[in-house]
Amino acid sequence: MRAITIAEPGGPDVLSWSEVPDPQPGPGEVVVDVRATAVNRADLLQRQGHYPPPPGAPAYPGLECSGVVSATGPDVAGVRVGDQVCALLAGGGYAERVAVPAGQLLPVPAGVDLVDSAGLPEVACTVWSNVVQVARLTAGETLLVHGGGSGIGTFAIQLGAALGATVVATARAAKHERLRELGADLLVDYREQDFVEEVRQATDGRGADVVLDIMGASYLGRNVAALAADGRLVVIGMQGGRKGELDLGALLAKRGTVAATALRSRPLEQKAAIVRGVREQVWPLVEAGRVRPVIDRRLPIIDAAQAHRLVESNEHVGKVLLTVG
Ligand SMILES: NC(=O)c1ccc[n+]([C@@H]2O[C@H](COP(=O)([O-])OP(=O)(O)OC[C@H]3O[C@@H](n4cnc5c(N)ncnc54)[C@H](OP(=O)(O)O)[C@@H]3O)[C@@H](O)[C@H]2O)c1
């Protein structure tokens, strides 16, 4: 089969559509004939040599896909050849075929196109596991989402709104109108405005109960300052650096919590549990039209380099999909 391989660490032009060995399904795995995959920020880091795939994952990128099951390995129950699925992957989605643990498969939600469903698993699992499982967001609370226009952000805004939270999001001004349509109650242009001040004003001085952060070090102090009493900060990205200074006095005065998680390196059982939770709690919201895939555009997979340039420019809103076949 063919896949997008990384000839050597570097810019988008190191990506090439090449012949690679076909995947074989191991015990508990199925093979999916890929119809589409999606570009995630992590793929750019992997291409640059900063984010190697975990042991056992294919060497080429792709953290999610949609497609049709074409083979099943031993010890797989409840999945049949011909099923249309989308899947959370440890890697290897930029390909014609990929082997996936059956626990990481999700049905294509009713009302969502097979291609568009490729943009759901990574954001749904990341956002739900952090905002609901880790940070326990509840109705009536305030959720601050950084990078509201990202794949993660567009999903977090919708999920937060569907769960009954007030949603504040940071994004460049050009994206505000689109993010308001998705359910953000307040948009902060982080280039011009101080998000701590904006969150305080919007909450009568209380602050945000939950912060979903993708910036890391550069926002750490201000995120703690933006937290309400008993607030929960969950860091899932380090776009602003990995080493910051944490004022424990400020945190303990608020009885605050700082957590950080990565989905890709979680053990298989944890991923399967998250996928089950997403299927039970998030898929009904998707099928009811309250949370939708936000697709910036679809490009053929041979244009993966162009897709990476687009995501690197941050001009997209939501997900950039790569279609196969
Ligand atoms: N830990 C995990 O398990 C996990 C899983 C998935 C993703 N992630 C992380 O989540 C983040 C989003 O991923 P993605 O693939 O959805 O990203 P993406 O679509 O590539 O978007 C990146 C976003 O960063 C925003 N941004 C840049 N500088 C900013 C700043 N100073 N303040 C606020 N926003 C800023 C950009 O928005 P503007 O155009 O508005 O600047 C852009 O929307 C990445 O950091 C990724 O590594 C983590």
TrEMBL record:
Record keywords, A-Z: NADP, Oxidoreductase
Superkingdom assignment: Bacteria
Leader sequence segment: none
Every Enoyl reductase (ER) domain range: 10-322
Residues covered by region (Disordered): 1-27
SUPFAM superfamilies to which the protein is assigned, alphabetical: GroES-like (SSF50129), NAD(P)-binding Rossmann-fold domains (SSF51735)
GO MF term list: NADPH binding; oxidoreductase activity, acting on NAD(P)H
InterPro entries: ADH-like_N (IPR013154), ER (IPR020843), GroES-like_sf (IPR011032), NAD(P)-bd_dom_sf (IPR036291), Quinone_OxRdtase_PIG3 (IPR014189)
Protein name: NAD(P)H quinone oxidoreductase
Organism, as annotated: Micromonospora sediminimaris
